[in-house]
Amino acid sequence: MQKQILVTGGTGYIGSHTVVELQNSGFKVVIVDNLSNSEISVLSAIEKISGIRPDFEQFDLSDKTLTDAFFDKYPKIEAIIHFAAFKAVGESVEKPLEYYRNNLNSLMNLLDNMKRCGIAHMVFSSSCTVYGQPDILPVTESTPRKPAESPYGNTKAICEDILRDFCKVNSQTNCIALRYFNPIGAHPSALIGELPLGVPANLVPFITQTAAGLRKELSIFGDDYNTPDGTAIRDYINVVDLAMAHVVAINRLLNNNQKNNFEFFNIGTGQGNSVLQLVKTFIQVTGVNLPYKIVGRRAGDIEKTWADTTLANSELGWKAEKTLEETLLSAWMWEKKIRDIK
Ligand code: UFG
After folding, report:
1. What is the pTM of this model?
2. How far apart are the C-alpha atoms of 256 and 136, rounded to whole Å?
């Protein structure tokens, strides 16, 4: 019997790649997404890659009545991967209540239903943003969390706390929070990838849109950081590697391999790369011209962070496999595909 997994936000960037890997691994998937930041055509792309069209329901998980009705309609769900959330750091500063309302209520509506329907397992989409600027690098899971820089980041920290407290009193519930570093790249088929609305806030979509001629030049935010070339350092993780981490986490939950019923793992490559290194690697692997200039630092940015992935490697048996070169190339192939560039 195929096990059924609910993937919230499954038409989004990381969600869609995860649905493909789940289906490739034999799971039956139902997606819930309100399409506020994704497109329905992603379902056909998923079908093209994996040969299976996942079930799909369009509604807002912060609506309790609709969420309850959904679980009544799908009584066989065994586990949930919860991606659906607002995720723009800058926007969250402008609209804090929208972020808290959406990100916290949707999680609590899901947890209510896990309890009501006896669903034991959840993988939660968390972020390295909970560590802020760590005092010691690389970041391990025992690195203390720091006060969030933005309402968005705070929703991730609060959601982790809600999960911890929920698991404490519901001993039959098992949760894993995956703290992602910086996901980039696209599926090697170039059929799914990141689809930012408007001007991209994140580095790699801005790079690929500039290379495609949609933007005049990339602004590099700051070259006066305490790093070898002065630009900020992040741990850029391939989105397919990241998707695989979810499959591994789901199997750990379904096979009852957890050490305790609320666990969290760093999901990164273990390598830090600077903005300039990323730009130079992109130019080198694609051969495309990329105009850029150095401007001042962006408010709220940290200087450097990268993951210690020892725990994910040893406990989950998961490791990032793709190189930065192939990942950046996949991002470019995707941009070319959606812009119809030959
Ligand atoms: N950057 C530029 N120019 C740009 C965009 C970004 O120089 O046009 C720089 C940033 O200043 C930063 C680096 O590229 O140094 C990466 O920036 P991103 O916006 O791509 O990613 P962040 O590290 O700022 O944020 C990401 C996710 C958040 C998450 C955070 C955790 O977008 O959701 O990682 O650290 F919370």
Report:
1. 0.98
2. 33
- Other CB atoms within 10 A of residue 94 CB: 10
Task: Provide CB contacts within 8 A for 223, sequence distance 6+.
Answer: 229, 230, 231, 276, 294
Q: Which residues surround ligand 1 with Cβ inside 6 Å? A: 87, 89, 127-129, 153, 182, 201-203, 206, 218-221, 232, 234, 275, 298, 301
Return the residue whose CA atom lies nearest to atom 6 of ligand 1.
203
Which residue owns the Cα nearest ligand 1 atom 26? 182
* Residue range 254-307, pLDDT digits in tens: 999 999 999 999 999 999 999 999 999 999 999 999 999 999 999 999 999 999
Which one from 152, 180, 225, 236 is the annotated catalytic residue?
Answer: 152
Q: What is the pLDDT of residues 195-238, one digit of tens each?
A: 998 999 999 999 999 999 999 999 999 999 999 999 999 999 99
Ligand 1 pocket test target in 129, 155, 160, 202 with most atoms within 8 Å of CB: 202
